[in-house]
Amino acid sequence: MELPLFPLHAVLCPGIVMPLHIFEDRYRALTRHCIETGSPFGIVLIREGLEAGASPSLAVAGVGAVAEIREASRYADGRYDLLVAGTG
């Protein structure tokens, strides 16, 4: 299974819900795709690097969680507030 990845300095576990504020263009596109198709995405832990902006030294953990969007609110400028749940 291929999943788009959302690296964070946080861990999402199955059965846990997490609020996310989506503001970067690449993650806005990921969110639109997941909402339009009903697809999940992966959340992986950042081991090194930054969450925001282009980080050439981004290193992520080898495991993560599958996340499903449970609630989504879109701002006029294209940002989103999400509530996601870890499902696997």
What does this structure look like?
The structure is a single chain. The chain is mainly beta. 15% of the residues lie in helices and 47% in strands. The protein contains one helix and five strands. It has one helix at 25-37; strands at residues 5-8, 17-22, 41-48, 59-74, 80-86. Strands 1-3-4-5-2 form a five-stranded mixed sheet. Strand 4 and strand 5 (80-86) form a beta hairpin. The longest helix has 13 residues, at 25-37. It is globular and about 35 Å long. The protein starts with a strand and ends with a strand.
Helicity, as a percent range: 10-25%
What is the arithmetic mean of pLDDT? 90
Secondary structure category: mainly beta
Number of strands: 5
Report how far the terminal alpha carbons are from each other: 12 Å
Number of helices: 1
**Which spans of ≥5 residues are poorly predicted at pLDDT below 50?**
none
Shape: globular
* Rg, Å, rounded: 12 Å
How would you describe the oligomerization state of the chains in this entry? single chain
Q: Strand share of the residues?
A: over 45%
